[in-house]
Amino acid sequence: MQVTDAAYEVLKEHGQPMEVQDLLDETLRKLGQDREARQVARIYTEINLDVRFQYRGNSMWGLKEWLPKSVAKGSTGRSGGYDDEENGDVEEDEG
């Protein structure tokens, strides 16, 4: 099992964002691995690179699929995501 798949399953089972250290510990437990600095760094790096995960701030990670569709679709990569209306980039039809 890939480390990111294990982390994804941990978050899915938890059902809400998790503090990163708890997520890493649970992922290692699911993989049957001991907590070693090298493994922790590897998992954290993989989570950062996987588009299924989203950093929520304050050391919390969640799944991008938990975001409302309009926010996930219009995300600009900034924390929380933004769509065009929130940025004021959409002209309103006055007629």
From TrEMBL:
One annotated Gene Ontology cellular component of this protein: DNA-directed RNA polymerase complex
Keywords from the UniProt entry: DNA-directed RNA polymerase, Nucleotidyltransferase, Transcription, Transferase
Protein name listed in UniProt: RNAP delta factor
Statement: the UniProt record of this protein carries the keyword Repeat: no
Sequence segments annotated as region (Disordered): 71-95
Compositionally skewed regions (Acidic residues) per UniProt: 82-95
Organism: Sulfobacillus thermotolerans
Sequence ranges assigned to domain HTH HARE-type in this UniProt record: 1-66
UniProt record similarity statement: Belongs to the RpoE family.
InterPro entries: Asxl_HARE-HTH, RNAP_delta_N_dom_sf, RpoE
